[in-house]
Amino acid sequence: MTEMLYFLDCYLKEFEATIEKVTDNRFVVLDRTAFYPESGGQPSDTGKLVRESDGAEFNVLYVSKSNGDIVHEIGSENVSNGLKVGDKVKGFIDWDRRYRHMRMHTATHIIANVIEKEAGAQITGNQLGIDQSRVDFSLEVFDRDKFAEYEKIANDLIARESPVNLYLVSRKEAEERLSRLTTLAKGFSDEINEVRIVEIEGVTIEACGGTHVKNTEEIKGIKIIKLQNKGKSNRRMYFTLLD
Hints:
By secondary structure, this protein is α+β, with helices and mostly antiparallel strands. The protein has helices at residues 95-119, 147-158, 171-177, and strands spanning 3-4, 14-23, 27-30, 32-33, 47-51, 57-66, 69-74, 88-93, 122-127, 133-138, 164-170, 194-200, 204-207, 222-229, 234-241. The chain has a 6-stranded antiparallel beta barrel. Helix 1 packs across helix 2 (147-158).
């Protein structure tokens, strides 16, 4: 199984690794990676791999999980001189994209927590983006006027400059430590035995495998830009970051 370097060091921008599998000259598995694979509403990282032996560069277009592996999809420009099993490479993350997603992800935890506590909503999903992100939730009475208040509460929490801590623990320890593993209504997969906990001090603590900032001050602030009614009790909120 690929060692997930991003799990406890979200700020790792480059790393060294060895090619373990190559499929169709395009799909590469490394022994270790800092590239985040698309998961949990967070898009994958992009960037490049550079082969140590000759300096050949390979663009990483998309990263996903497959049967326990983290698979890096490589651009087609160097297929004739493709990566091979055993090649030593250096990986470089597209940092601007990664950091934007880190800020968005931590912000999503905060605003989702506020909506849940203040409105009694059940969080049903989320999708992060570069320009905007969304939170889906179940709420019978949809009082749109209240969301200006929720935005202010979230921004006040962000302004506290609270540390964001990451822990990797066993499933058993996580269940003993937390009243629940996740705010998501769908719950937490039974297949996951090792749990990464994200604690935003004074705000929320829950299981999450995504990338996050070290302190809420890095988020700067959020602005709710759209609210939608998606059907009976199904609601959607879009927000962006303040820069």
